[in-house]
Write a sequence for this structure.
C-alpha cells in the first residue's frame, strides 16, 4: 500500500512504529517519494518527545486553559477537542504543501506535527501580547484582550455577543443607544483608553445593554453594520436559516439504520469548480477491510478468509 500511496499519516507515539519497520527512517530510502506525516503530542524531537499526549493535556500545557474561563474562576478547557482538531488542520495544510513540493521535485519528506507546537502557535494574539510586553495574559472570560466592548452581554431577556470593532462604530453605537456621554468621556473616547479603563467602563456599558431586550440590539446593530448576534445552543445553530441555506446539515443513507437516513455535518468548504461530493457515508467498523485487501494488496478471497480464521482480521 505504501508503494502505491503519496501520503502516510500516523499518530503513534514517537518511535512507536520503528519496531515494525514502518517509521520514516526505515521507509524513506525505499520510497523516496513518500510524504510521511506524524502527529504526536510533543513532536519527534525535544525532551518531551517520548511522552504520550492527549487533547486536554495539550490544552493545559500550551497555556490555552490559562486563557479560557472567567477572570475569577479556574482554568478551563474548550468545549471541543481543539488541540486534536487544530493538529489535524495543520497536518492537512502541511501535507498539501509537501504534495506541491513533490509535484515539482518528485521527492517526499517527513512532516513532524507536535500538538504542543500547534497550540503554542494557536495562542496568536495572546502569545504575541506576552512576547511584546512580557506580561502574562489573564483570563478575560468572553472579553477581547485588545478591543472594548467586544464580548458577551446580558440583555433584558437573554444574552448576546457584541463586537464594536473600532472608534467609529463605538460612536455609532452610542448615538443609537442614547449614551453619547460615553463616547465623549475622556476615559473611554478611544479603544486604547477603553482597554486601559475596562474595569470602569464595562459596568456602566453593561447596564445600558441590560435595559433592552436582545432583539432590540440585534436589529439595531444590523442596521448600523456592527457585529452582534445571539449566543446559540447547538439546536439553534442547525435551526438557523443561514446555516440551513448553506447546507451544513447533511442527510445520507447509512447501513447502521438499515439504509435509512442519518443526519451528518456537511463540509464547510465551498469550491466554484470542484464541489464536495458526498459519495459515501461514514463507514461501519471494518466495512472496507476486504475491499482494501483485495484492491490495494491483491489478496484473494481465500487469503482474506485465512487471515480472518487466524484472528488477524
Amino acid at each position: 500500500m505504501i508503494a502505491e500511496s503519496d501520503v502516510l499519516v500516523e499518530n503513534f507515539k514517537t518511535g512507536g512504529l520503528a519496531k515494525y519497520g514502518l517509521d520514516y527512517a526505515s521507509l524513506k530510502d525505499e520510497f523516496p517519494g513518500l510524504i510521511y506525516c506524524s502527529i504526536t503530542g510533543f513532536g519527534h524531537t525535544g525532551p518531551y518527545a517520548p511522552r504520550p499526549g492527549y487533547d486536554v493535556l495539550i490544552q493545559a500545557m500550551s497555556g490555552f486553559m490559562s486563557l479560557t474561563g472567567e477572570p475569577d474562576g479556574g482554568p478551563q478547557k474548550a468545549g471541543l477537542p481543539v488541540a486534536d482538531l487544530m493538529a489535524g488542520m495543520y497536518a492537512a495544510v502541511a501535507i498539501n504543501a509537501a504534495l506541491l513540493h513533490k509535484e515539482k521535485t518528485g521527492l517526499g519528506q517527513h512532516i513532524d506535527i507536535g500538538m504542543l507546537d500547534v497550540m503554542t502557535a494557536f495562542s496568536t494574539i495572546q502569545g504575541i501580547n506576552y512576547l511584546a510586553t512580557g506580561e502574562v495574559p489573564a483570563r478575560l472570560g468572553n472579553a477581547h484582550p485588545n478591543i472594548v466592548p467586544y464580548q458577551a452581554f446580558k440583555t433584558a431577556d437573554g444574552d448576546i455577543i457584541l463586537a464594536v470593532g473600532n472608534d467609529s462604530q463605538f460612536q455609532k453605537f452610542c448615538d443609537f443607544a442614547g449614551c453619547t456621554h460615553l463616547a465623549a468621556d475622556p476615559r473611554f473616547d478611544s479603544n486604547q483608553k477603553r482597554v486601559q479603563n475596562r474595569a470602569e467602563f464595562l459596568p456602566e456599558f453593561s447596564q445600558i445593554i441590560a435595559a433592552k431586550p436582545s432583539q432590540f440590539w440585534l436589529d439595531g446593530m444590523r442596521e448600523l453594520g456592527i457585529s452582534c448576534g445571539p449566543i446559540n445552543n447547538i439546536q439553534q445553530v442547525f435551526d438557523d436559516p443561514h446555516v440551513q441555506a448553506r447546507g451544513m446539515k447533511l442527510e445520507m443513507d447509512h447501513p447502521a439504520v438499515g439504509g435509512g437516513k442519518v443526519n451528518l455535518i456537511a463540509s464547510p468548504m465551498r469550491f466554484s469548480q470542484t464541489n464536495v461530493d458526498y459519495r459515501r457515508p461514514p463507514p461501519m467498523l471494518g466495512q472496507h477491510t476486504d475491499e482494501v485487501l483485495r484492491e490495494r494488496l491483491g489478496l484473494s478471497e481465500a487469503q482474506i478468509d485465512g487471515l480472518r480464521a487466524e484472528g488477524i482480521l
User: Anything to note?
Assistant: The CA atoms of residues 234 and 240 lie 10 Å apart. The chain is about 40% helix and 15% strand. The longest strand covers residues 35-40.
